[in-house]
Amino acid sequence: MDYSIIFVCLMGMGTVFFGLICLIVLTTLLGRICGRKQQAAPEAAISAPAAVPAVNQQELIAAVSAAIAEDLGTDITGIRILSVKKL
């Protein structure tokens, strides 16, 4: 059987687009399934911060400064943290 070039190109592009559509559908479904599980988790996490003791602000800033200095490869005296916001 002899296939034309146009038929082979259309079959190849059709196969690719079909595969891409399948990937889109699967990722959408998995996102919705995982999204339901993650929505239930924050309710339990809301009550957890009340049990955690307050962290000393100066120790927190020192730890963050040390981590940033280590990552940048600079001295800690060259880093100035202006503000820290809780999320």
Beta fraction of the residues?
under 5%
Structural class: mainly alpha
Distance between the termini: 66 Å
Number of strands: 0
- Radius of gyration from the CA trace? 27 Å
Helix proportion range? over 70%
N-to-C SSE string, H for helix and E for strand: HH
**Uncertain regions spanning at least 5 consecutive residues:** none
Q: Outline the biggest β-sheet.
A: none
**Can you tell me the overall shape?**
elongated
Average pLDDT number: 81
Number of separate helices: 2
Overall description:
There is one protein chain. The protein has 87 residues and is mainly alpha-helical. It contains two helices and no strands. The protein has helices spanning 5-51, 57-72. It starts with a helix and ends in a 15-residue tail after the last helix. The model has no long low-confidence stretch (mean pLDDT 81).
